[in-house]
Amino acid sequence: MNELFARHRQVLPDWLALYYDEPLEITHGEGRHVWDADGNRYLDFFGGILTTMTAHALPEVTKAVSEQAGRIIHSSTLYLNRPMVELAERVAHLSGIPDARVFFTTSGTEANDTALLLATTYRRTNTILAMRNSYHGRSFSAVGITGNKGWSPTSLSPLQTLYVHGGVRTRGPYAELNDRDFIAACVDDLRDLLGHTRPPAALIAEPIQGVGGFTSPPDGLYAAFRKVLQEQGILWIADEVQTGWGRTGEHFWGWQAHGQSGPPDIVTFAKGIGNGMSIGGVIARAEIMNSLDSNSISTFGGTQITMAAGLANLSYLLDHDLQGNARRVGGLLIERLRAVAAQLPGVREVRGRGLMIGVELVKPGTDEADPKSASAVLEAAREAGLLIGKGGGHNTSALRIAPPLSLTVAEAEEGAAILEQALRSAY
Prior knowledge:
Strand order of the largest sheet: 4-10-9-8-7-5-6
Structural class: alpha/beta
């Protein structure tokens, strides 16, 4: 056990998970690469859990942060804040929500917590619909709506949560149906559920479930849900913490794959917009955002230095069409991994879109999760110079691949080759 790991164990919680048998200390990064304390170089296919969205040490963001730090770092929301107003204007415009208002937080957990506060206040009910296999953060309220047992340490909650089918396409009672019938069955389930409860405040859903292993429903499911929800005035909250800002390639927001019934009432975001700086936020129609009848502030949400980073990062990803790059390079990477998977009995499915790719692993010859092999692949990839993530929900194990959106074709090929060898070593 190295010295830093021993100190970590001594003063930090036992439940604070670390990857790898010999945990890694990352000391610096550049582009799509990071280095550890021993000088080893890695191609980063996980980006700080989808947070380093653009690139490590992106000069435009580094410059903006440095210049802002030389002026003022923080003043709280009790004072006018030009960078916060400017970023809010851009985010509101990009959101697709009419008459949008934006509130900045420090994390996706806090953003979802705020969205739940808004929805329950606006609707005057504490009942929430959530998706099975979902993950929405680590706060008391966010854990209470998380439909993933591995990330829900308590059943206590300030909310009454009811879970809906549909977040996982290839498992569960409707897996064998075609897409159209799958959506119809999930809508029927939702209607039946609503018949047994008082009208809930909102449905919260990740367009692609992140921690759950990058699973998703057929396009259009949430649009079909929304038609049902609107009959009772129930709000739709899209959790875009992992899918936002063009990561899926085909769309700027994940909800746009389900946009036939219009935009969500509330969108939450975080992670990638700060490119590593701590930014989260909520976008909502003005009547919903303004429904709180008590004072509220945020000490650190929207602080000047994080807003400067967000503005610079957003400008870079739009100016360089990183959404288009995610679509092109991500499409190549998915096809490359599917070709590998076809030769390996332990790979059940390669799924995802853009640069948000899941590789589900099972015990060969079965449909059972194989977390031991997932850990072995993670270790083998690290040894060969590639960092990836892992996840999964009920009886599943998946590798999570989400590089910075500036990934090149050559780097995609390099990472795919390393991952292929790591998979072959496990199967």
